[in-house]
């Protein structure tokens, strides 16, 4: 079994990806197809009886474009092509619109409209025509068919009027405007898709470029892409670990915050496992790679992220059904109408006018505006409250959310270790002198605790140390004017000064001299002020708050207790967080709120993910919602505006369909016996009024009071 990884261009919606999946799976040699319609990435498992190029040829024959996913050539080419066609379509449409509205109804005006409309119809809309032709091969309709059909009806009926009637009821401006709108939307979407794909590459930037490999007792630096299972790598303090492996020798303090979200490094020894991208603060270790470079956890995470959109949202399934039923049905009705009126003795020209009315009044302009325009207005409204909603499905998904799962560090808490309390145990000791020595001992130390101490002593001068010595995962020993001092883990300092400590020990670090403990610093990661109100609001809305954290039990339990969150989990790897989200999903939708690289998988696996502007670059990109203020209050606003937007979308769909439901029978001629017949001009006016109704209703969102 082989796997083909491809980039596919020209997909507009989930119906497009369904077309590809359904037709590829008809072949016995293709066993599994996963397509991310957002990123354009595809992962296709196949037997040796078919090769990658043959699969690419098949996808091309369906009306899409495909390339092996080892370059950005296809993506860049597609975006540039859209841009070129859009900037041709816009001036052509403006000329047509001015001529149409000017009242100059001469043959020259009609000829100029035809000329410019032809440019738009056959050059600018060519990608949609090409893709829509695949319906004859795939036997399934998608948005390309809707676009091509809606514009072709207006154009070709106008063409008929130009040659046989020389009237002024042309629809050239209608077909051109639709094409301009679709090209612009597709261009914006493709640009956003490319930016998202580029940002996924940030995940690999946490890895060093080179690895110090030992071969035959000699050190050599190689690219991490060349690392093989069994290679031995030396990593010293201050460096990143370049591979997934097991420690063969040495001891070090290692921070894996990109995996577990935990700020505090851990002391690792022989036999412990390490993950590529982890940082060695102090110490020196020899690590043996347990995988080839392509199988490192970071690359596995990237693979999962790229293919995380294979599940279709409800709104996508609805659009698929509409596209597959609505288009053939309208075509059938128009053909039946033509045949009916000819069969009862009316002229083919009259019957063609009836058929054209049906197609024009059924043109999916309002349907195309109903959802995206409401989303655009909602996104503008959200932006006013410093909320960036990047995934349209959010507006629908919020109503099904039963759980909100929070990462702890940097989400419910501020993500920075700070000194919460400071106590001097020896009254005879001078506080100023203690803080000066403590500051001097922690200077030039990258450890998170050292940073907390330096922030706490920021307003004090440091003293001069005679000497300073680090002890991995324990603390620092220093000499000042001939006297020795110790600063570090409470148990270690107690052992060095040979004394007991009877006070609170949780999150405590000690400062002492050669005979006693002089002072104790208590550390904490403080809870965000707004977290309390947000948790209360969620409970009032019958949404259960949950903590999913990679941090230790004590730290997570304390935060949960403080915020009165009953359900919490600790020591979770990114994969374990995903498992918990899947488990919670069985009882209802799950929203995940996180800010770290280690939260990326959970942000994508949840019904939708929320991140912060201060989060890691990867978390900001993969999250569906980005809060532009580092405040949890934005979560409440997301749910409020989503509820209003979903209601607005439902109203828009009503306006979009009610005209079709009422006017298609009228266009068919059901009222003709009473002297009422819908002309193409009136059909165009009805279509426009349908769009105006949708636009007016969508604009109401901008006035919504959060």
From TrEMBL:
This is Copper-transporting ATPase. Residues 2-67 form the HMA domain. PANTHER family: ATP7, ISOFORM B (PTHR43520), P-TYPE CU(+) TRANSPORTER (PTHR43520:SF8). It is an enzyme of class 7 (translocase). InterPro entries: ATPase_P-typ_cyto_dom_N, ATPase_P-typ_P_site, ATPase_P-typ_TM_dom_sf, ATPase_P-typ_transduc_dom_A_sf, ATPase_P-type_domA, HAD-like_sf, HAD_sf, Heavy-metal-associated_CS. It is a multi-pass membrane protein. SUPFAM superfamilies: Calcium ATPase, transduction domain A, Calcium ATPase, transmembrane domain M, HAD-like, HMA, heavy metal-associated domain. PROSITE patterns: ATPASE_E1_E2, HMA_1, HMA_2. Probably involved in copper export. Its EC number is 7.2.2.9. It is found in: Cell membrane; Endomembrane system. The chain crosses the membrane at residues 86-104, 110-129, 141-163, 169-188, 322-344, 350-380, 653-676, 682-702. Keywords: ATP-binding, Cell membrane, Ion transport, Membrane, Metal-binding, Nucleotide-binding, Phosphoprotein, Translocase, Transmembrane, Transmembrane helix, Transport. It comes from the Bacteria. Belongs to the cation transport ATPase (P-type) (TC 3.A.3) family. Type IB subfamily. CDD domains: HMA. It catalyses: Cu(2+)(in) + ATP + H2O = Cu(2+)(out) + ADP + phosphate + H(+).
């Amino acid at each position: 079994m082989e796997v083909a990884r491809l980039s596919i261009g020209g997909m507009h919606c989930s119906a497009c990806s369904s077309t590809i999946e359904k037709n590829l799976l008809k072949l016995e040699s293709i066993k599994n197809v996963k397509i991310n319609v957002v990123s354009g990435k595809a992962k296709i498992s196949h037997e040796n009886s078919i090769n990658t190029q043959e699969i690419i040829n098949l996808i091309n024959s369906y009306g899409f474009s495909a390339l092996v996913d080892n370059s950005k050539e296809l993506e860049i080419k597609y975006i540039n092509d859209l841009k070129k066609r859009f900037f041709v379509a816009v001036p052509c449409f403006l000329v047509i619109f001015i001529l149409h509205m000017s009242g100059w109804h001469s043959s020259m005006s009609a000829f100029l409209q035809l000329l410019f409309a032809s440019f738009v119809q056959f050059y600018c809309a060519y990608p949609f025509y090409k893709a829509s032709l695949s319906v004859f091969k795939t036997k399934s309709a998608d948005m390309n068919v809707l676009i091509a059909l809606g514009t072709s009806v207006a154009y070709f009926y106008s063409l008929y009027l130009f040659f046989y009637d020389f009237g002024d009821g042309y629809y050239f401006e209608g077909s051109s405007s639709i094409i301009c709108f679709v090209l612009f939307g597709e261009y914006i979407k493709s640009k956003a898709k490319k930016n998202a794909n580029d940002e996924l590459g940030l995940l690999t930037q946490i890895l060093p470029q080179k690895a110090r490999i030992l071969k035959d007792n000699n050190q050599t630096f190689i690219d991490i892409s060349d690392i093989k299972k069994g290679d031995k790598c030396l990593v010293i303090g201050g460096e990143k670990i370049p591979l997934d492996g097991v420690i063969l020798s040495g001891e070090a303090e290692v921070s894996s915050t990109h995996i577990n979200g935990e700020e505090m490094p851990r002391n690792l020894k022989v036999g412990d496992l390490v993950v590529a991208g982890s940082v060695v603060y102090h110490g020196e270790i020899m690590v043996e790679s347990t995988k080839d470079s392509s199988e490192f956890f970071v690359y596995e995470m990237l693979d999962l992220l790229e293919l995380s959109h294979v599940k279709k949202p409800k709104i996508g399934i609805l659009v698929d059904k509409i596209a597959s039923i609505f288009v053939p049905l309208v075509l059938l009705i128009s053909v039946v109408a033509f045949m009916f009126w000819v069969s009862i003795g009316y002229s083919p020209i009259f019957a063609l006018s009836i058929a054209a009315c049906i197609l024009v009044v059924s043109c999916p302009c309002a349907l195309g505006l109903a959802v995206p325009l409401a989303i655009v207005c909602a996104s503008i409204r959200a932006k006013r409250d410093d909320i960036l909603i990047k995934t349209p499905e959010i507006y629908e998904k919020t109503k099904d959310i039963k759980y909100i799962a929070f990462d702890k560090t940097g989400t419910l808490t501020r993500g920075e270790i700070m000194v919460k309390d400071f106590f001097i145990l020896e009254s005879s000791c001078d506080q100023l002198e203690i803080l000066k020595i403590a500051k001097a001992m922690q200077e030039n130390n990258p450890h998170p605790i050292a940073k907390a101490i330096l922030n706490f002593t920021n307003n004090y001068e440091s003293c001069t140390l005679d000497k300073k010595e680090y002890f991995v995962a324990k603390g620092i020993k220093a000499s000042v004017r001939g006297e020795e001092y110790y600063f570090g883990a409470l148990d270690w300092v107690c052992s060095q000064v040979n004394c007991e400590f009877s006070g609170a020990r949780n999150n405590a670090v000690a400062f002492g001299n050669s005979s006693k403990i002089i002072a104790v610093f208590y550390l904490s990661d403080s809870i965000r002020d707004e977290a309390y109100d947000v948790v209360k609001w969620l409970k009032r809305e019958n949404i259960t708050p949950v903590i999913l954290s990679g941090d230790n039990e004590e730290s997570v339990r304390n935060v949960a207790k403080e915020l009165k969150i009953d359900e919490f989990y600790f020591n979770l790897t990114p994969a374990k967080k995903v498992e918990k989200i899947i488990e919670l999903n069985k009882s209802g939708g799950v929203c995940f709120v996180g800010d770290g690289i280690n939260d990326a998988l959970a942000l994508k696996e949840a019904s939708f993910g929320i991140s912060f502007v201060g989060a890691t670059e990867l978390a900001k990109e993969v999250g569906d919602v980005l809060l532009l203020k580092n405040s949890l209050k934005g979560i409440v606003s997301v749910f409020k505006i989503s509820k209003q937007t979903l209601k607005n979308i439902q109203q828009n769909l009503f306006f979009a369909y009610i005209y079709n439901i009422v006017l298609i029978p009228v266009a068919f001629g059901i009222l003709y016996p009473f002297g009422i017949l819908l002309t193409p001009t009136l059909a165009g006016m009805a279509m426009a009024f349908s769009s105006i109704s949708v636009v007016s209703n969508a604009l109401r969102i901008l006035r919504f009071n959060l």
